[in-house]
TrEMBL record:
It comes from Herbaspirillum hiltneri N3. Transmembrane segments: none annotated. This is Glucokinase. The keyword Nucleotide-binding applies. InterPro entries: ATPase_NBD (IPR043129), Bacterial_glucokinase (IPR050201), Glucokinase (IPR003836), Homeodomain-like_sf (IPR009057), HTH_RpiR (IPR000281), RpiR-like_SIS (IPR035472), SIS_dom (IPR001347), SIS_dom_sf (IPR046348). Its main location: cytoplasm.
Length: 653
C-alpha cells in the first residue's frame, strides 16, 4: 500500500535535501515498510511488503526502489525488530540475516544506518503530534520526565527515553524477553500451560500477536473445551469485538491485563513520570475496547505505589508509521553531526572547579567509569576516600539532581548506543566532510572491536605472551608496520622479541622457534598466500600461534588463538587505513595487559622465586669454585707421567 505525504509538525519542512531523498525502512517479523524522506519531516511514498515474499532484506529494498521513481539515494536508515550489535544482523522473529556493510554496497549507498525498531520508535515520541496519541488514564506527564514505551506486535518491544541536556537518549532494551509474571490465579494457570512447552516463558510469549493464540489455547484447556477451533490472532480479536464471543473476549481481556502489568513494571523500573506509550500492531486493532479493558486498572495496581502509578499517564500511539519519524531523526542527527560534549570530557574540563575532595571523586570516575555506574554511593565514597555528601555535592556540581541522575548521564557517555553505520568518502566531499567521515568510520569500527572482544581468549593470549620465552611478530605491508610497532612495545617490556616483514626471513625464523615461543601473525585479510609456508613451519615447530585477523579467515583456522579484527576496507582501497588502526589498538591492548600481568603480585612472586633459584645455583657454583681454587693452592704431588696430565677439575672450572 502507499500513501501520499506524511508531514510531522515537529519538523520544519524546507527545501529538499541537497543530496537527494533518504530511504527509510521499518522491518518487523511479518512486514517490511519502506518510505522516502524528501525533506526534513516530509515522509511519503510509503509501501508495505511482506517479509515472507523475499529471501533477503536487500531484495525487498531493491523491489521497493524499483517500483518507485526517485532521484539517486545516498543515505538510508533501517529500524529493525532485532538487537543491533556489530555488522551482522540475524532477525529473531524472521529468517533474514545480513551484513550491514555488504547490504550498503549492494544498494549503492554512502550511508546505511541500522537501529533497533524500539530505539527508533522511542526517538519518534518527542516528535509526534498530539493527534497521533490517545491518552488512557493518568494525570499530566512531567515535562522533561523519563518516557517509557511498550509495544506488542509480532513480538514485544520495550524502550525508553532519558532527557539529557536538551536532547533525548534512547535506551536500547530487550525487555520483552523478561520472565512473564502472573498477577492472578488464572494467569498462573496460563503460565503452567506454557511451561509444558517452554522452559522459560518470556513476557513476549503471551503479550504479543502470537501470544493471543497461546492464551486462547490455554483458556480452552482451563475451561475444558473439547475440540476447540484453531483461531489466528486476527480471528480472535474479530470474534471478541464483533461477535462478542465469550472465550475470545476472555482472551483479549487477559492480554490487556497482562500488558497493564508489564507496562507498570517498566514505569516503576525507569521512573517514567513523562508517561508510558503503547505501540505495536495489536492494541490499535482493539479500538475503544482497550480503554475499557483491564489494562489501566492493572497498570495502577502496585500496592503501596498505587498513588504513584495513578499520576503516570498512558498513551496509545495512533500515528500510522511512527518508526519512520524516529529513524529519520536518528539519521538526521548522524548525518548532521552533533556538538554535545561527552560527559566524561565535561568532567575532565571541570576539574579545576572542584574542591580537593570532589577532585578525588572525579579521579575515581575518570579511572573507573563503568565500575562507578554499578556501585552504591557508600562504595564510591569509600574508594574515593570522601564522605557520601561529598559524592552528592560532586553530582550537583556537574548539574545533576543526584547520584541516580548522574549515573544516567555517565552511562550515556560510556555505553551510549552508537548506531552501526558507514559513511562512504567520495569525490566532491569538502575537507571537513572527509575528516568527519574518516573519524566517524574509525570510531564506529573501534566500538565494534571493543564489543566483540572475547574475555576468555584475551585473558589466555595475555597469559601466553607473559610467559613466552620469545615473541616474534610477522606481517606484510601496513601489517608489517604494525608488527614493528608491536616488537618495540614488547621489547620495552623486557620480552625478547623480533619483527619480520620479509617472507623468507619469516620462514627461516619460524623454523627455529621452540614450544616455549610465540608467533604473532598479523593480517588485515586473514588470507594465507605469502604466509602459508611460514604458518605451517611455525605450527610444526610447536610454537603457540596467535592471529590478529578476521575471525573466519584461513589464518584464524590455523592459529591457536585469534583476536578478531572484522573490517572490510573495500576492494578500491590501496592502503588499509581503519584495519591498521584496529590492529595497532589490539597490540596496545595486549601490551598493556602483559605489562599489568607481569607486574601483578603473583607474577612478582614467581620472578622472585626464579631469581632465588638462580641465586642458589650461582652461590653453589661459587662454593665449588672456591674449593677448586683452594685445591689449586696445594698442587697434587706428581708421580712420573701423571704430572703431565691435565688437571680435570681445574679445566672443568
Amino acid at each position: 500500500m502507499s500513501s501520499a505525504s506524511l508531514i510531522h509538525g515537529s519538523y520544519n519542512p524546507s527545501n529538499t535535501f541537497m543530496d537527494g531523498p533518504r530511504l527509510l525502512a521499518d522491518i518487523g517479523g511479518t512486514n517490511a515498510r519502506f518510505a522516502l524522506e524528501r525533506a526534513p519531516g516530509q515522509i511519503d511514498t510509503i509501501q508495505t511488503l511482506r517479509c515472507a515474499d523475499y529471501a533477503e532484506f536487500s531484495q525487498a529494498a531493491k523491489a521497493y526502489l524499483e517500483t518507485n521513481e526517485h532521484p539517486a539515494i545516498h543515505h538510508a536508515a533501517i529500524a529493525i525488530a532485532n538487537p543491533v550489535q556489530g555488522d551482522h544482523i540475524k532477525m529473531t522473529n524472521h529468517h533474514w540475516a545480513f551484513s550491514i556493510e555488504e547490504t550498503r554496497k549492494l544498494l549503492g549507498l554512502d550511508t546505511l544506518l541500522v537501529v533497533n525498531d524500539f530505539t527508533a520508535l522511542s526517538m519518534a515520541l518527542p516528535h509526534l503530534e498530539q493527534s497521533h496519541c490517545v491518552q488512557i488514564g493518568g494525570g499530566q506527564g512531567l515535562e522533561g520526565g523519563v518516557i517509557g514505551l511498550v509495544g506488542a506486535g509480532t513480538g514485544l518491544g520495550v524502550g525508553g527515553l532519558i532527557p539529557s541536556e536538551g536532547r533525548w537518549i534512547a535506551l536500547g532494551s530487550e525487555g520483552g524477553h523478561v520472565s512473564f509474571s502472573p498477577a492472578d490465579e488464572k494467569e498462573a494457570a496460563i503460565l503452567q500451560y506454557c511451561w509444558r512447552t517452554y522452559k522459560h516463558v518470556s513476557a513476549e510469549r503471551l503479550i504479543s500477536g502470537p501470544g493471543l493464540e497461546m492464551i486462547y489455547g490455554a483458556l480452552c484447556e482451563i475451561n475444558k473445551i473439547s475440540n476447540p477451533e484453531e483461531l489466528s490472532a486476527p480471528q480472535i480479536v474479530d470474534r471478541a469485538l464483533n461477535q462478542k464471543d465469550p472465550l475470545c473476549l476472555e482472551v483479549v481481556d487477559c492480554f490487556c491485563g497482562m500488558l497493564g502489568t508489564l507496562a507498570s513494571n517498566v514505569a516503576v523500573t525507569l521512573g517514567t513520570l513523562g508517561g508510558i506509550y503503547i505501540g505495536g500492531g495489536v492494541v490499535p486493532h482493539l479500538g475503544d475496547y482497550f480503554a475499557r479493558s483491564a489494562f489501566r486498572a492493572r497498570f495502577e495496581s502496585k500496592g503501596r505505589f498505587d498513588a504513584y502509578m495513578q499520576k503516570i499517564p498512558t498513551f496509545v500511539i495512533t500515528a500510522p508509521y511512527p518508526a519512520f519519524v524516529g529513524v529519520a531523526a536518528i539519521l538526521a542527527e548522524r548525518l548532521g553531526g552533533g556538538n554535545a560534549v561527552p560527559f566524561l570530557e565535561r568532567i575532565r574540563k571541570a576539574r579545576s572547579q572542584f574542591s580537593p575532595a570532589e577532585e578525588r571523586v572525579a579521579s575515581l570516575i575518570l579511572a573507573h567509569p563503568r565500575a562507578v555506574m554499578s556501585e552504591p554511593i557508600s562504595e564510591i565514597a569509600r574508594r574515593a576516600n570522601v564522605s557520601q555528601p561529598t559524592v552528592i555535592r560532586f553530582c550537583r556540581t556537574m548539574g545533576c539532581q543526584g547520584l541516580a541522575d548522574f549515573k544516567l548521564k555517565l552511562a550515556s557517555g560510556v555505553t551510549g548506543t552508537v548506531p552501526v553505520a558507514h559513511s562512504q568518502v567520495h569525490v566532491g566531499d569538502s575537507a571537513l566532510d572527509v575528516g568527519v567521515k574518516v573519524v566517524d568510520n574509525t570510531i564506529a569500527a573501534m566500538m565494534e572491536v571493543r564489543d566483540s572482544l572475547n574475555a576468555d581468549t584475551l585473558s589466555k593470549v595475555i597469559e601466553v605472551l607473559s610467559h613466552a620465552t620469545r615473541v616474534e611478530f610477522y606481517g606484510f605491508g601496513s601489517c608489517g608496520l604494525v608488527a614493528e610497532d608491536a616488537q618495540q612495545k614488547f621489547f620495552r617490556l623486557g620480552i625478547p622479541s623480533t619483527a619480520y616483514t620479509d617472507p623468507q626471513l619469516q620462514e627461516v625464523s619460524a623454523s627455529l622457534l621452540k614450544n616455549t615461543d610465540v608467533a604473532v601473525i598479523i593480517s588485515n585479510s586473514g588470507r594465507l598466500r605469502h604466509l602459508a609456508t611460514t604458518v605451517e613451519v611455525a605450527v610444526n615447530s610447536g610454537a603457540t600461534i596467535i592471529a590478529l585477523a578476521p575471525s573466519n579467515s584461513q589464518l584464524a583456522k590455523r592459529a591457536d588463538y585469534t583476536l578478531a579484527v572484522e573490517h572490510d576496507e573495500g576492494s578500491m582501497m590501496h592502503i588499509p587505513m581503519v584495519s591498521r588502526i584496529l590492529l595497532l589498538l589490539l597490540v596496545d591492548v595486549l601490551a598493556v595487559g602483559v605489562s599489568l600481568n607481569r607486574s601483578s603480585p603473583f607474577a612478582e612472586l614467581q620472578r622472585q622465586a626464579k631469581r632465588g633459584i638462580l641465586a642458589h645455583i650461582a652461590s653453589t657454583h661459587d662454593v665449588i669454585g672456591d674449593k677448586v681454587s683452594a685445591a689449586d693452592d696445594h698442587p697434587v704431588e706428581k708421580h712420573g707421567d701423571e704430572g703431565n696430565k691435565p688437571n680435570l677439575i681445574s679445566h672443568t672450572k
